[in-house]
Structure formats: C-alpha cells, structure tokens
Amino acid sequence: MVCDEIRTSSMAKVAGTFPERLCYRLLNIVAVLAFLAATIGVILKARVPITEVEVEALDVFPWPVLFYCLFDDDTSSTGVSVETALGLNMKQQGECTEKEATVWTIDLASDASADPKRTCIKLNDRTESVLAKDLEERFQLFSKEPSRPNGRPWKCFTFNEDGKLASSADTYKEVQHQWYTTMQAGAQHDAESYFAWSGILDPKYKTLAEQKDSFTYFTVPLVNSATQLSFTVDKHVDKDWTNIFTSSAIGERVKIIGEAAMEERVKEYLKDDAIKLNFHPALNTKSMSPVTSPNVEQRSKLTFHPLNYVSRTVTSRYKTWDEIWGEIGGAWATAVLLVSIFFVQKQVEISPQHPEKQRKNRKGKSGEKKTATIAKSEEPQVMEEVHVFRLRGATSREEAVKTAFAMAVDAFDAGQANKDAIEPSIKV
Asked: Is the whole-model pTM more than 0.85?
C-alpha cells in the first residue's frame, strides 16, 4: 500500500512552470528518503527497552524481610557481656516468646468496640537462616577497628523470610519487637555497644550478595527507646521482547480483600522473576520516659510498618506492535505533509457545452455534431488530477490553469476516441 502511494505520488502530473515541476519531484524524493530514514529509526529504537513509571495505590503491600542484630558474647574479652551489663530480657507481648515478634493487626473499617488482633511470627537465627549468618559476617566486617582487627561478634535474627506478611490500606498492620533492660550496679561495659542494627531486605533473595545494591541498615538504641522503622515499596517489572505482540492497554485493577487473597498475591510477586521489589526504609527513634531508679526495668520497642500504600510501578518493556505501527504511520504522514505544504492536488473538470470542447468535437473524425439537448444532458466529467504549487502568483496560476485545461481536453478526446473504436466491435 505504501509503495503504491509512493509510486502514484512520484508519477503524478504537475501543472506549472518547469522549476515548479522540478521542485515537486525533488520534494517527493526528499519525502521518500525522510520516510525511509524515520522507518529505519523506528525499527532500530524498537530493539531498545523503554521505561514507564506509574504511581498507584497498592491493593496489596508485600512486606520485606525484617532483621535486627545485637552484640554477641566476645570470647576474647574479659569483661561482662552486653546482655549481662544491661540485664537484657527479650520479653514480648501476650503469648509470644522471646524468640518471636508480635504482629499487631486491626481492621480500619471496624468500630470502636473491635479489638486488635495479635499473632506471633518466629525469629530465625544463624542456624536457621542463611541471611542471618550473612548479616553477622557483614556487621563483623563493618565493626573492624585498629583495636579490634577481627571485628566484633554479632548475633542476628530475621523474620518474614517466607514472605507471608502482607497488608492493605483497609487493614493496618505492624510488627512489634520489644525488650527490657535493667542497668546493673557496678557492671561496666563499652557504652558504644548499647545499640543494635536493624533494617529490611528483599524477600525474593536469600543472600546479601544478591541485594548488595539495596542493602540499608540503621542504628537502634538498646536502652529506653521507641523506634519506628517504616518503609515504602516500588515495583520493577521487566518484560521481554514477546511484549511486542501484546497491547499497551492497561486492564482494570481488581481490589484484593482478605488475608488469604493478600498472601496469594504476594506469592505471585515472589514467584515472578520479571517483578522486582525495591523497598525504601526510614527510621524514627525517640527516648521513652526516663527511669532514674536503680534496678528498674526500662522498656524499649522496635516497630516495623508500611509508611503508606502509594507505590511506583517502574516497567521496562519493548514497544508493542501497535506503537511501532503508529510511529511508522506518523513518519508517512510527515512525508505527505512535506509535499502538501507546497503543492495541492486539483481536479480539472470540463463540461461538453464548453466552447473549446465543442470546437474539438467539430474537428473529430466522426464528423457528427451533437445537438444542444444531448450536450446539456451530459454531466461534467473529471478529466485529470494535477498538483499545483500553492505559493504561485496570479500569472503563474493562470498559466497552470490553461495547462491543466488543455491536459483535460486531450485526455477526454483520447477516451472518447477509444470508446468510438471499441463500440462497433462490441455490437458485432
């Protein structure tokens, strides 16, 4: 279809002077070359992935892996351990043990008579989690000093490695882990040791090496502190070249309701290799009410929760077939516009009653003269389609009209002669 249009446009008749006809031919050549160059550019660019960013409110918020790390007993040190100096006691709420954290959930659509739901989530140590062991090695590396060339020993705990935690905007959820400290009289220890490391990790990866670019951690005070670690999430979707055969339209989003449905959606995220989750954490910490009496427990609390449910979906994909076809169509329209700016297509019509036409008929070989009644009954006929320069002056326009008119009369006569020659053979 495009090739036929190029041929028709290139071979079209042009009314006007020689420079105008030459200009038309050159414009056609430039337009065709521009179209071919643009088409090649579209094909080459179709091989390069494009990135789209969409901001949306998540129906399901997949939670990251949560962790915290404490100083472990240093066998090379003669001093008391941190746990002994602080009287550290990992006492949790309700039925949760010291090796669990509390998942606190409440339905925001419920009334004031509703009670929050509390469940327990297990903490994994180095014997149960590769991530926990990797974290201990990483922080031992971070704590190397001239006085401690081997670094400090750590013990790390992770939870939600199975990725089952999920929440929605209709259900508020947070994970709480608390502990109590009692300053022991006469027990001295390095004051710089009175803190813990905490952060979040991607649940799709099981080692730190796989997420070294996104690894972030924070310092959490161990004594008399209330710390909130909040996070948001971006979803990165990588589509392969097969996306070229699909439409770029976005389907209707379906609202997810219920814990089971949320868990299933999170499982889909974790199983899909084309989807990557990028979490962005932030920390807020403050002191609890001070306790000045000796041998009195001071409560500290570490809380994890989503900051909000607004997320960016970053999609890396190849152009779809309809987008490629649309760009090629735009290239063709631009080429046509280039010619149309300077030249306009005109249709030259001639009526049989025109004196010039009647003069030509009288000179015909048939020698027949058409009556006025027959001539009036004949309709004006479109004889030729010609291109005329838009910016020509009055003299040039007159010359172009005469030329086009002569072309139309000649074409009509040729057609009539052919008709007269063929009709007798048809009757026989």
From this structure: no
Q: H or E segment at 346?
A: strand 343-350
Using the structure block, give the residue that is written with the tokens 């659509």: 109
Both tokens of residue 258? 């219920």
Instruction: List the chain domain ranges.
Output: 2-47+343-427, 54-317
Nearest-angstrom CA–CA distance, 412 and 12: 18
The 10s digit of each residue's pLDDT in 107-136 is: 888 887 888 888 999 999 999 998 999 999
In the numeric block, which tokens belong to residue 352?
Answer: 């049989």
DSSP tag of 289: S
* Dihedral of alpha carbons 206, 209, 215, 221, sign: positive
- Cα–Cα distance for residue pair 92/120, rounded to 1 Å: 10
Residues in a beta bridge with 120: 102
124 Ramachandran zone, left/alpha/beta (phi>0; psi -120 to 50):
beta
Residue 369 is encoded by which pair of tokens?
């003269």
Pairing state between β 13-15 and 381-389: parallel
Residue 329 corresponds to which tokens in the numbers above?
A: 């169509």
